[in-house]
Design brief:
about 50% helix; three-stranded antiparallel β-sheet; about 25% strand; alpha+beta; single chain
Length: about 80
């Protein structure tokens, strides 16, 4: 069974994915690193390309996503 999830440790990429509406499935800690796990690997990979090619997102959604993800980091 193939897992349809996308995992990254990049906070800003994760905030971008979250701001673009991708569902955060879980987080995973490996030592001091926190990995963000998103649903829909294919959509995440398309948004990854968009992110690194100057993709745009609402500033307020991006800031809120960063805040939410930082809260998750410090909870774990």
């Amino acid at each position: 069974m193939e897992i349809n999830q996308f995992e990254t440790k990049d906070l800003y990429l994760s905030a971008y994915l979250k701001a673009k509406g991708l569902s955060l499935a879980d987080t995973r800690r490996d030592g001091s690193r926190v990995f963000f796990i998103f649903e829909d690997k294919e959509k995440a990979e398309n948004l990854l390309k968009e992110f690194f090619n100057g993709g745009r997102v609402s500033v307020s959604l991006f800031v809120k996503a960063i805040s939410d993800l930082k809260t998750l980091i410090h909870m774990r």
